[in-house]
Amino acid sequence: MSASTTQKIDPNRLTLWERHYPGHDMISTRTFGFWLYMLTDAMVYAALFASLGVLSHAVNLAGGPPPSAIINPVYAYGETITLFLSVLAYGYSMVALKSGSRGGVVGGMFVSMLLGVVFLAIAATDMGHLFAQGVVPETSGFLSIFFTILIYHALHIVVGVVWMLVMIAQIARDGFSANVVYRLINLRLFWHFQAVIWVFVFTFVYLQGMVA
Amino acid sequence: MLVHLQGPWNPLLGRLTLQQIPYENPILLGTFIFAAILGVIVLGATTRYGKWGYVWREWLTTVDHKKIGVMYCLVGLVMLFRGFIDALMIRTQQAIAIGPNSPGALGAVHGYLTPFHVGQIYTAHGLIMVVFAATPLLVGIMNIIVPLQIGARDMAYPYLNALGLWLTTAGGALVMLSLFVGNFAHGGWYGFVPYFELPYSPGVGVDYWMWAFQLSVLGTTMGSINLIATIVKMRAPGMTWMRMPIFTWASLSTNLIALTSFPVLMVALGLLGMDRYLGTHFYTAGMGGNLMLYNDLFWIWGHPEVYFLILPAFGMMSEIIPTFSEKTLFGYATMVIASFAIGGVSWGVWLHHFFTMAAAPNVNSFYSITTMLVGIPTGVKVFNWIFTMYRGRVRYELPMLWALLALFLLLVGGMTGMMNAFASNDYMWHNGLFVVAHFHMMVLLIAASVFGAVEYWFPKVFGFKLEQKWGKWFFWFMVLGTGWVFVPMFFLGMAGMTRRLDYIPYTQWAPYLHITLVGMAFYVVAVLFFVAHLYVSLRDREKNRVGADAWGTSRNLEWMTHSPVPAYNFAFIPHVNARDEWAWRKENGIAELHAGDYEDIHMPKNTGIPLFLGLLSMGLAFALVWRIWWLALLCLVLMVALIIIRSFDRDTDTTIPAREVERVERAARDGSSGSVPPAGVLGDAVIATSTVRSGSGGIGGNTTSPRPSWAPRNR
């Protein structure tokens, strides 16, 4: 108890109730929650990467191809470049948001979205080739986790692309209302997060796979 | 990509055929008739009294954290009852099926349940009690109390809150549905691989288990995001971290655990799902699968989950014990540190669930020691509670009785837990009844805290206290049942009895098993007393109306608003000046002050979308269980569409005008005359009207709370 009973309290000098309380900052509350969501998703990825570590033993190849035989560095390079350029474009879109330029935001986002689609196309081509060669998730424990991580990441990109479409529509309808702005900020977090995760995918799935 | 299935499948209904309805089983038939009659009564009464509009407006579409919390608790209570019936069946089966000469009935060689049926029952019992009874009850209470304790008007994300509720409910409903359509998993609630893989468990039971589990994972994760954001971002001005009520601290710690551990379970179950649906080889025997991967992933969630359940229970005890000791909590800072220490250690102990799985001795030793470390912060908590009571004016009212029972069970469960922490001990009784008895002590501790918390906060939510007489009968029969059921189990565990037996080969265990059956009889009587407790409380609610400060000696912010709490929680947001703010105000004689003119209050608007998303998620899960691909796709597309459509909705908020606030506040302050809110609800229309018994120390009432007749005099 911070105040003992011997201490005299003067009610007139105390603030007991908050008059005209403005409420909590909506945008910062929503953004904070999105950080928490990203923490949960980071845990999902952590568990998947841990599974990759477990299932990378020679036993887990079960006679199937090792990672070095199936990884095509050209595709991985192309995916890396497109995803990072896409994040860069989204960054310019956010710069435009600061100056309130609707055209700048939508333009940046459109480029970002297109690059996201290109990323998906490269990933689909890569996986399509592998599937055509009979390298499928059912082949071995290692290939199961290999494809799971890649597809789980690609699904995030799909969600991001759909989200950008929705945001372009909402900007066109509402301009930069509080709801639109917090969603743009959260989408920025989401999109950057996918690039960060891609660094881990590249390191653990591709780089480590090539070396092993 | 899709796996080849044994048995029939057609595009329209998937694996679902008429033979999957177990109408030939008299137990399930009886259950169905019971459920159907109950359903008809509930739905019929709602229609008969024209309450559909009320149910829709006030409950199904609500985003009010108090109502969502109440619904969480109702779901938890229903599932608790189901889990209890499962327990009753396990215990009766084990009391009958002892030795080769034991009788058999209903198609069973021994006892009255076939091994397949027993398997489903104990799997359902475990899953239900952990994720569909304890979790919703705790989440529900946190949902109601945390925003009130921090002086907020709602949760950070009211819409997400409703979504979490409906996803959890969908999961629970799916478990219930498995009773009547198909069957449930029969290999234990945490699943075994490769036993839960398709070749060994080709039926739909594991799929029901998996998808119900996944839905609850989603719901709980969303709830944890919401509660953490609420606590971090929504505290009233002046409420610094070290002024936060201890239950809020416990909630923060517990939800940090949930936030970080539930996604791992999502992966554990998700990979199993890929194995079962797409033919991958994560956990298969052979083809490069790894069986231990499942155990590790599952228990990396599983053990933090235990502390996710127990920390809110500790928080509840930390609220109840100071109130009924009429003292401030002893060792507030150490209590906070201990909560987070338990949360932190919870991440480093999971391997003690499988000491016998051929880990190296140094690995086992590491996890033995981390497990024992849990005892240190827990011990700090126990001593803090004891010192809180020491030289306090302890009043043995119902919440306090439950808290003391919880304290006692914590000692028994904690000490036996230390015994389990030795890997060498575990080699002797792994998977045995000693372990079962140990963790039932711990979960009964949680149950005792929850009952205590319900008794304690019930008047805050509903405006009247629960009566004491039948409640005490309920309490004492729960004590009796707990002793008689679980003490013999410790002996049986020492004697070598393993879990999940449908037939007991050793007749010398019979006396112990019969004693546990007597204990179950005490539990049954306790349930009847519980019903009487609720009935009498509801009948006599007028006599037990209370004001804002229902117990007279409570200490925190939630008691600074009317009982029942109005929709907007606080007409004015309190400014916090001290730890135990309400107790501080009462001590300084400033409890009657309020701020004058009322203001408009901004609140979120009701929406039916979370309910529809919950229904669709249940449809999706059901379609996946039966592999009805068109239905799964349809539900998924509709869910995505609904989420997008909702994001275009600009009309999501509403304002309660100042005049309306004033009307409600006046009614609550002055209205000791006949205006009584409808029974057992949180008020009519948008806003509650409540009655304060004159002189009960509500806001604007007397400055000091009256001393109840049962309270001890000054010594």
Automatic annotation (TrEMBL), chain A:
Gene3D superfamilies reported in the protein's UniProt record: Cytochrome c oxidase, subunit III, four-helix bundle
Ranges annotated as spanning the membrane: 34-54, 74-92, 104-125, 145-168, 189-207
Domain of life: Bacteria
Presence of keyword Flavoprotein: no
InterPro entries given in the database record: Cyt_c/ubiquinol_Oxase_su3 (IPR024791), Cyt_c_oxidase-like_su3 (IPR000298), Cyt_c_oxidase_su3-like_sf (IPR035973), Cyt_c_oxidase_su3_a-hlx (IPR013833)
Ranges of residues in domain Heme-copper oxidase subunit III family profile: 32-210
Alphabetical keyword list: Cell membrane, Membrane, Transmembrane, Transmembrane helix
Biological processes, Gene Ontology terms: aerobic electron transport chain
GO cellular component terms given for this protein: plasma membrane
GO terms assigned for molecular function: cytochrome-c oxidase activity
Pfam family, one: COX3
Major subcellular location class: membrane
Family designation: Belongs to the cytochrome c oxidase subunit 3 family.
Protein name in the entry: Cytochrome O ubiquinol oxidase
Automatic annotation (TrEMBL), chain B:
Transmembrane segments: 27-47, 68-85, 122-146, 158-181, 208-232, 244-272, 297-317, 329-350, 365-387, 399-423, 435-458, 470-492, 512-536, 607-624, 630-648
GO biological process: aerobic respiration; electron transport coupled proton transport; respiratory electron transport chain
Cross-referenced InterPro entries: Cyt_c_oxase-like_su1_dom, Cyt_c_oxase-like_su1_sf, Cyt_C_Oxase_1, Cyt_c_Oxase_su1_BS
Cellular component GO terms, alphabetical: plasma membrane
Ranges where the Cytochrome oxidase subunit I profile domain occurs: 50-577
Pfam family, one: COX1
Record's keyword terms, sorted: Cell membrane, Copper, Electron transport, Heme, Iron, Membrane, Metal-binding, Respiratory chain, Transmembrane, Transmembrane helix, Transport
Organism domain of life: Bacteria
UniProt xrefs under Gene3D superfamilies: Cytochrome c oxidase-like, subunit I domain
Membrane-protein topology: Multi-pass membrane protein
One Gene Ontology MF term: metal ion binding
Family: Belongs to the heme-copper respiratory oxidase family.
Protein name: Cytochrome o ubiquinol oxidase subunit I
Organism: Acidithiobacillus sulfuriphilus
